[in-house]
Design goal:
Mean pLDDT: 89
Largest sheet: 3 strands, parallel
Radius of gyration: 19 Å
Strand order of the largest sheet: 1-2-3
Shape: elongated
Number of helices: 8
């Protein structure tokens, strides 16, 4: 398998841990991640040397991958963006989600300024759901253009 051969090359070059996503470039975000290739790599190189990623959308998914693939580390990418509370195995309250959105907004403003709000909007709306008023907030985010627009929309919900 090409993945195992590539892992061998990386370890021979000095890598101490490799994270395998379990999804091909052609798949993009479609279909299921192939956890079997992660499991094979773990069996060949050892659980401490292989980490897994792919289709981790809940705390339970992470536990299942860890057990099935026998890896010591599991990474969550889109799952963590959609639910930043994935690691605590708890459902956040409306206040926690809104407070996180404010922190996210302030962090973005500090690092990037008043530009590139499309990426911020995409990320924030993915975890602003499952509470009374969430739909209205997301609609306001679609119209928001400035830091102040976003902040006012969030504060109105608090």
């Amino acid at each position: 398998d090409a993945t195992l051969k590539f892992c061998e090359i990386l370890f021979d070059a000095g890598a101490s841990n490799i994270c395998i996503h379990g999804r091909s470039k052609a798949q993009l975000y479609h279909g299921k991640a192939n956890w079997d290739v992660i499991k094979l790599a773990s069996e060949q190189f050892g659980r401490e040397k292989i980490s897994g990623s792919g289709d981790i959308f809940s705390y339970e998914d992470a536990k299942q991958m860890s057990k099935y693939c026998n890896v010591s580390r599991v990474y969550a990418a889109r799952g963590a963006m959609k639910n930043p509370y994935i690691f605590s195995n708890t459902e956040p309250t409306k206040f926690q989600r809104l407070n996180l959105a404010l922190k996210h907004l302030d962090f973005h403003q500090e690092l990037i300024s008043n530009e590139y709000y499309n990426n911020l909007r995409t990320n924030m709306v993915s975890y602003l759901h499952s509470f009374n008023g969430a739909k209205e907030l997301r609609v306001k985010f679609m119209r928001a253009r400035t830091y102040e627009d976003y902040k006012c929309a969030i504060l109105e919900q608090m």
